[in-house]
């Protein structure tokens, strides 16, 4: 009893645009073995969002700016 609609619901995102999206779900629907009806809101970036920088990309960018990267490229 007491079902309050579908366990998964999300706000309608604009197609293709980078935006903060959210999904409301019950703890029991996470598949972790907890029988709780408690709900939580999971927020994430979705759509055509730019890739965040990481150490690998930053190092490659610095290497390219220094004129390196052609010697031995692809050997690692």
UniProtKB/TrEMBL annotation:
PANTHER family: GDNF SUBFAMILY OF TGF-BETA FAMILY, PERSEPHIN. Keywords: Disulfide bond, Growth factor, Signal. The gene is Pspn. It comes from Urocolius indicus (Red-faced mousebird). The keyword Hydrolase does not apply. The keyword Transmembrane helix does not apply. This is PSPN protein. Residues 1-20 are annotated as: Disordered. GO terms for molecular function: glial cell-derived neurotrophic factor receptor binding; growth factor activity; receptor tyrosine kinase binding.
